[in-house]
């Protein structure tokens, strides 16, 4: 087959978003730079051309053939390793690219080796590789961008921001670096600056769906974004994915005359693992009646862990869709005869929302992992509850609302022997508040309200614990913000992430959890309830901002829902003085919570099954 050589200013076919002259043309030059026999050079150039065109299996076969002739050819080793990395085998990629680096190191090799190491979670080694790439080519913006991503995964947010800034200084039109800088600023809690970065990235690459999802995630919990502004942006995303799709319009199994008596339900997620989505999904899967629903997983992930292993048996089929394009994924779903396709990600990381524009299933639903509208045509329903989204707010969603009777969520209790202890304040003679939310949720409004609470309670203490606090720079920055609000360092304990059982045990030191707003806790609130610790939450107007409201209402704690900041302060101060009430809650809250649908998976699973059937029947009646 004759392949057209891309122009130097054309978009590179590898999908990087950069021009060919700044991307894979460099790879061709690298191949040409190593002295090899003409026949091997020609074979390498053909293999690289296939690689650039996305024909990875053909390129892989060519590279392997070359290595059969010239086993120490550094370029063939390098690019074969890159193919393995691109298809999810990062271990083989590390082995092959490391051999290439040992033979004839280039900046490209070090950069790609860093990416493979990073995929394996070897962040220190990945960072060393990126720095080696930069040492070989000081103006290598791509390596600075990748370095920033690795530093961010280590929790070194300030260093990550600096690396992304260096990438942009070298290449102001580097859309990926603008996007990644936005991601780092978002984790730091700098929403306004993060949103500005996403818009700057989209000015360069208007059709980058990943960046648009990141923007929507940030807007969904940006207080200054109105529901209509959010919905307009979500619909813009939806229009773009719909324009690229070829929706199915006929489904052979979509008939009232079906005789098998069960629905095939597909779940699409990149979080079938130790993750909040996994925690809320696991116990439900255990109680789904296979005679009612047959489950199929479409996993947008290669990484699997012990939670993955536990939930896999509940799925009839398990498809890994990472690396497959939307058309291929949609074809797989359609061929599986899925009746209802459920998205568990929304606009969070690793989402495959664009697949839903293909309408590979006759009924499509958004649930669990996201707290706003997807904006995608073809997503029929948003599965929620009436407390999370009052009916009057239905016009804030592109989807129709479908209400579960008690709660939209069901938490899987931890598998450990911890039990709630006595009230710490009884022994300490002071109240200990805590917040275990991510740094991005601890905004200035939250800290200012906490400052008012601590002014009213001069002996109270505060514990803050989250992943970002493993970074000393971020820890110091947070303490400075707390001090400015009147909460001095001698009243605060700040810790990083702990192993889960140790983390759960740390609730033994806490009397009251202080929720964040407008982005409240989910997993942390349920963990606190299970450990007998009440959470004080502030009711907002959106699905996201009402997550805590829904949970506390479900477990019978409506008095722990504040309706404005003054109410939040008043309740915190009042409850801190009521030791008898806090002690009684400590003794009874776990048992009280376990009786509700928020923890009772058998009860929730039946409600979920009923909802699946009712949505299917309603959609069937609309079409037929």
Secondary structure elements and their pairing?
Layout: H1 24-33, H2 38-52, H3 56-69, H4 74-86, H5 90-103, H6 107-119, H7 123-136, H8 141-153, H9 157-170, H10 175-188, H11 191-204, H12 209-220, H13 227-243, E1 263-269, H14 276-287, E2 293-299, H15 306-311, E3 317-320, H16 326-335, E4 340-343, H17 353-356, E5 363-366, E6 381-385, E7 400-404, H18 424-428, E8 432-435, H19 444-456, E9 461-465, H20 472-484, E10 492-495, H21 500-505, E11 512-514, H22 523-530, E12 535-538, H23 547-554, E13 561-562, H24 565-576, H25 579-594, H26 601-623
Parallel strand pairs: 1-2, 1-4, 2-3, 4-5, 5-6, 6-7, 8-9, 8-11, 9-10, 11-12, 12-13
Describe this structure in words.
With 624 residues, the chain is α/β, with parallel strands linked by helices. It contains 26 helices and 13 strands. The protein has helices spanning 24-33, 38-52, 56-69, 74-86, 90-103, 107-119, 123-136, 141-153, 157-170, 175-188, 191-204, 209-220, 227-243, 276-287, 306-311, 326-335, 353-356, 424-428, 444-456, 472-484, 500-505, 523-530, 547-554, 565-576, 579-594, 601-623, and strands at residues 263-269, 293-299, 317-320, 340-343, 363-366, 381-385, 400-404, 432-435, 461-465, 492-495, 512-514, 535-538, 561-562. It has a seven-stranded parallel beta sheet, with helices on one face. α8 (141-153) packs parallel to α10. The chain is globular and about 85 Å long. Mean pLDDT is 93; it is low at 1-9 and 12-18.
């Amino acid at each position: 087959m004759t392949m057209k050589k891309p122009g130097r200013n054309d978009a590179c076919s590898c999908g990087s978003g950069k021009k060919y002259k700044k991307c894979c043309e460099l790879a061709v030059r690298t191949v040409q730079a190593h002295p090899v026999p003409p026949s091997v050079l020609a074979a390498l150039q053909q293999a690289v051309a296939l690689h650039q065109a996305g024909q990875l299996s053909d390129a892989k076969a060519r590279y392997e053939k070359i290595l059969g002739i010239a086993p120490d050819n550094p370029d063939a080793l390098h690019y074969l390793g890159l193919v393995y990395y691109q298809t999810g085998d990062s271990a083989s990629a590390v082995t092959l690219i490391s051999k290439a680096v040992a033979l004839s190191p280039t900046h490209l090799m070090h950069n790609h080796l860093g990416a493979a190491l990073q995929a394996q979670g070897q962040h220190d080694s990945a960072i060393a590789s990126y720095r080696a790439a930069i040492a070989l080519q000081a103006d290598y913006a791509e390596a600075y961008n990748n370095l920033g991503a690795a530093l961010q995964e280590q929790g070194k947010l300030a260093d990550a921001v600096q690396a992304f800034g260096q990438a942009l200084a070298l290449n102001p039109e580097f859309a990926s670096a603008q996007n990644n800088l936005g991601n780092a600023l978002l984790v730091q809690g700098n929403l306004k600056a993060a949103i500005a970065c996403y818009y700057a990235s989209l000015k360069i690459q208007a059709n980058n769906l990943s960046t648009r999802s990141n923007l929507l995630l940030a807007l969904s919990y940006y207080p200054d974004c109105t529901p209509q502004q959010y919905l307009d942006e979500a619909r813009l995303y939806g229009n773009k994915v719909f324009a690229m799709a070829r929706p199915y319009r006929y489904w052979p199994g979509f008939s009232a005359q079906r005789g098998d008596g069960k629905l095939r339900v597909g779940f699409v997620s990149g979080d079938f693992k130790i993750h909040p989505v996994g925690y809320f999904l696991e116990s439900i899967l255990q109680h789904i009646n296979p005679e009612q629903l047959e489950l199929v997983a479409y996993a947008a992930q290669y990484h699997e862990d012990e939670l993955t292993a536990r939930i896999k048996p509940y799925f009839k089929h398990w498809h890994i869709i990472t690396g497959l394009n939307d058309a291929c994924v949609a074809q797989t779903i359609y061929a599986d005869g899925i009746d209802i396709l459920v998205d568990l990600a929304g606009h969070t990381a690793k989402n495959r929302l664009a697949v839903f524009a293909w309408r590979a299933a006759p009924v499509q639903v958004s649930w669990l992992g996201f707290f706003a509208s997807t904006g995608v045509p073809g997503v029929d329903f948003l599965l929620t509850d009436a407390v999370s989204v009052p009916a009057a707010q239905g016009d804030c969603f592109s989807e129709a609302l479908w209400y579960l009777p008690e709660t939209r969520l069901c938490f899987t209790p931890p598998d450990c022997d911890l039990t709630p202890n006595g009230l710490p304040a009884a022994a300490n003679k002071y109240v200990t508040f805590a917040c275990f939310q991510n740094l991005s949720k601890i905004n200035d409004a939250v800290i200012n309200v906490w400052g008012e609470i601590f002014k009213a309670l001069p002996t109270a203490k505060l514990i803050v614990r989250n992943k970002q606090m493993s970074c000393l720079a971020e820890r110091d920055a947070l303490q400075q913000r707390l001090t400015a609000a009147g909460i001095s360092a001698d009243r605060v304990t700040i810790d990083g992430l702990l192993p889960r059982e140790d983390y759960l045990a740390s609730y033994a030191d806490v009397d009251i959890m202080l929720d964040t707003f407008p982005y409240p806790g989910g997993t942390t609130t349920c963990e606190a309830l299970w450990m007998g610790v009440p959470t004080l939450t502030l009711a907002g107007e959106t699905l996201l901002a009402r997550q805590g409201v829904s949970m506390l209402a479900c477990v019978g704690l409506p008095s722990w829902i504040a309706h404005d900041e003054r109410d939040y302060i008043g309740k915190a101060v009042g409850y801190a003085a009521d030791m008898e009430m806090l002690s009684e809650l400590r003794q009874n809250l776990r048992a009280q919570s376990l009786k509700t649908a928020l923890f009772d998976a058998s009860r929730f699973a039946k409600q979920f099954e009923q909802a699946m059937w009712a949505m299917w029947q309603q959609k069937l009646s609309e079409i037929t």
